[in-house]
Write a structure and sequence with these properties.
The protein is an alpha/beta fold. The chain has two domains: about 10-90 and about 325-350, Enolase-like, domain 1, CATH 3.30.390; about 100-320, Enolase-like C-terminal domain (TIM Barrel, Alpha-Beta Barrel), CATH 3.20.20.120. It is built from ten helices and 15 strands. The chain has a seven-stranded parallel sheet. Helix 2 (about 110-120) links the parallel strand 6 and strand 7. The radius of gyration is 20 Å and the shape is globular.
Length: about 350
């Protein structure tokens, strides 16, 4: 269960003084001159949460974002901290392209609402549809996928793509049934582009990949694995879904993808515009051009920490200079439950730097 705070809404930013941290952990934050805690309501429940929380760090290169979900332990969360500190203190890598294509993310909503999301945003040619959620079932998932596929086909014909994400919810036998049904539901666009993380175990992904024809994408099997290259060794996936912050930042991701012999999709971890823009910068600098990326997720949040949101034009994200929305910075006392919880968590994460 994701931790939230009773005072977590509406959106506000709270200053967090590094003086709240133990003196032996402050060394980690050299070059950081400002830390903010944010709490933002979600427009629709997503990944089991209604409120998104995280940290922003300011350094010489701007703002970095650290927003590990509460189900990440301190050691896992330390990778998010490393990514945020890198973004704030180290210049972005040299870009190889000026923009990256995006997919639209469809949460667990009714089919009619999913169709309307596609029709209201004609720039999107690729959609990622969330499935296998506790609030849904196979029939509703199929109707949602079918509605999205038909709407995309109406807009974009043979250029349209639909992918689904199960977040490791199925065992291998169940996955065979669900993938076949969902693939038929996406018939309007020629079937599924891929199914993301149908099972949690890498061995199950490898088994599935050999038992059926829909391509397999690995997400959690890379970002939450002790050995992220196991996916490649077992030939368990056709696509690697890469999330910058959980993997430790741009430099760590660059090293990793050099060893992954498969197409890439750079995806968000429900960050605000600062985290999304940093992920886009990393994506623009990679040797391999990613497929349509899952970075267009700011609209899942009820508000944003940036004065103007990450720049999206014609279905692509373009890295840009972002400024903090200073009007949101609260003068509430820094000993609120929200800031105190994050101060404690920050100290725990810093221990692993």
């Amino acid at each position: 269960m994701e931790k939230t705070h009773a005072d977590a809404s509406p959106l506000r930013l709270h200053e967090l003084s590094l003086e709240q941290l133990p003196s032996d952990t402050r060394r980690v934050f050299e070059g950081i001159d400002r830390v903010l805690v944010y709490s933002i309501p979600m427009r629709v429940r997503f990944r089991g949460i209604d409120v998104r929380e995280g940290l922003l760090f300011h350094g010489e290169e701007g703002w970095g974002e650290c927003a590990p979900f509460w189900d990440y332990d301190p050691q896992e969360s330390a990778a998010w901290l490393a990514s945020a500190l890198e973004a704030a203190r180290i210049a972005s890598p040299r870009p190889r392209r000026s923009k990256i294509p995006l997919n639209v993310t469809i949460p667990v909503i009714e089919a009619a609402a999913a169709r309307q999301r596609i029709l209201d945003a004609p720039q999107w040619m690729t959609a990622k549809v969330k499935v296998a959620d506790a609030r849904s079932d196979l029939e509703r998932d199929c109707r949602r996928v079918e509605a999205v596929a038909e709407a995309l086909a109406e807009r974009h014909g043979s250029s349209a793509r639909v992918r689904v994400d199960a977040n490791g919810a199925w065992d291998r036998e169940s996955a065979l049934t669900w993938i076949a049904r969902l693939n038929r539901a996406a018939e309007a666009v020629g079937g599924l582009e891929y199914v993301e993380q149908p099972c949690m175990a890498v061995e199950d992904l490898a088994w599935l990949r050999r038992k059926q024809d829909v391509p397999i994408a690995a997400d959690e099997s890379i970002r939450r694995a002790e050995d992220p290259l196991k996916v490649a060794r077992l030939e368990a996936a056709d696509v690697a879904v890469i999330k910058i912050a959980p993997l430790g930042g741009g430099r760590a991701v660059t090293r990793l993808v050099e060893e992954l012999p498969m197409p890439l999709v750079i995806s968000s971890a429900l960050e605000t515009s600062f985290g999304l823009d940093y992920a886009a910068r990393v994506a623009c600098a990679l040797d391999q051009e990613p497929r349509a990326c899952g970075l267009g997720t700011a609209n899942l949040l009820a508000a944003d920490t940036a004065l103007t949101p990450a720049l999206i034009q014609d279905g692509c994200m373009i890295p840009s200079e972002l400024s903090l929305n200073e009007a949101l910075v609260s003068e509430a006392p820094t000993d609120s439950s929200l800031t105190q919880s994050w101060a404690e968590r920050l100290a725990e994460m810093a221990h692993y730097q």
